[in-house]
Amino acid sequence: MIRKLYNIPYQDYVMHQNKLRKLRKECIILLEHLPVITAGVNYQKTNLLVAESYLQKNGIDLCFIPRGGDFTAHEPGQLVIYPHVDLKKRGLSIHDFIKFLMESLISAVLDIWNLQLSYFQDKPGLYLASNPQKKLISMGISFKSFFTSFGVAINIKNDRKLFELIHPCGGKSSDIISIKSLGLDTEKEIEFIYRFRSEFKKRVGL
Fold this sequence. Notes:
By secondary structure, the chain is an alpha+beta fold. 29% of the residues lie in helices and 29% in strands. It has 5 helices and 10 strands. The strands form 2 sheets. It has a 7-stranded mixed β-sheet, with helices on both faces. The protein has a 3-stranded mixed β-sheet with strand order 4-3-5.
C-alpha cells in the first residue's frame, strides 16, 4: 500500500531519516511538509531575502541540512518524495541513482500529464522542455555512507508563496511553476505517485 503523510514538520523527517540510514532500512516516503525553508550545503546567505525573525514571526521554519543545493521551500500542496536506497546493496553509483530517479520522474510526469520535462547537469531539478527556465521539480539529495536520504519536491497545487522569500537554488521565484499553474489536473497526483513507483521499481528495484 502507498500512503502519503500530511503536515509533517521538517525536523521530524530529518530525525527519522537519520534512523533509517543507521539501520540501512530502504523505503520511499511520500509527504507534505508544514511551511519550511531549507538550506543545503551550498547555500548563499544572500539567497534568503528576509530576516530569520520574519520567518519566525510568520510560523515558517528555517532548517540547515546536509543535502546538496541552496535554498528551497516546502509547503502544503507540494508532494515531497524521499527515496531511501542502499546504493551498496543494489550495486548503484551516485550517478546511476540520480539518472534512474530523474528518468522515473520524467516518464511518470509525461505519462500522467503529457508534460515533457528536461534534466540539466549544471542545475539540479527538472524543468519544462519547452521553456527550460521554468522549474517544476526541485532536488536535493544526501549520499552519506552510500545510503540516500532527502529527495525531490514536486509542485502540485501549492501557492508557491514561500519561494518569493528566497532565490530558489540561486534562481528566480518567478521561474517556479506547479501542475496547477500550468492548468493541469491536480487530482491526478495519486496516479502520478503510482506511476512513479512503478518506474522507479523497474530501474532501482525498490
